[in-house]
Amino acid sequence: xxxxxxxxxxxxxxxxxxxxxxxxxxxxxxxxxxxxxxxxxxxxxxxxxxxxxxxxxxxxxxxxxxxxxxxxxxxxxxxxxxxxxxxxxxxxxxxxxxxxxxxxxxxxxxxxxxxxxxxxxxxxxxxxxxxxxxxxxxxxxxxxxxxxxxxxxxxxxxxxxxxxxxxxxxxxxxxxxxxxxxxxxxxxxxxxxxxxxxxxxxxxxxxxxxxxxxxxxxxxxxx
Length: 223
Fold this sequence. Notes:
Blueprint: H1 3-16, H2 20-27, H3 30-33, H4 38-41, H5 59-84, E1 94-102, E2 112-119, E3 122-129, E4 138-139, H6 149-163, H7 168-182, E5 192-200, E6 206-213, H8 215-222
Antiparallel strand pairs: 1-2, 1-5, 2-3, 3-4, 5-6
Helix pairs in contact: 2-5, 6-8
């Protein structure tokens, strides 16, 4: 019986010591697990046609493979950002992360992403060009640099809700935006996407992910 507390301490220490990459791939594994469901896959390809791709995988297997690859690459990129900013999530009780990216990449290339990390009562802005093989994370005044009015308003709203610990409003905004895309605004094509991560160690290493687009500002301004 005396060994049980030690084992529990060991398990807790391991959980608290998880890296952002482990947390991200673990929390959002459904990004690829959905492709294990044949009915879900049928939405994207005709599974009645049997053939192999150059990779040697079937189209169904390729969807699953690429989904896993994309999740791992995304986790590695976020890990690289935090490492460059010298932020270790295992040492923090909470952290918030915003990354802004274009959804309309043109042939000339517009691969510059930017964002900010809220940690240790500070805000760390960053930017990088992921079209480069060995892209470098650079410091960036995310909330100081001006863009168009809609983007500025969007990132100010997101930032203020994070600072004021009202991140549940972000979930609500995302839900409303999704409903509008499925209904009145289904023809609207957002140009910018915000990926928001909210980490809370005290809630069993909770990691929430919220996607928003600049269009939520237009929705709010219409009301």
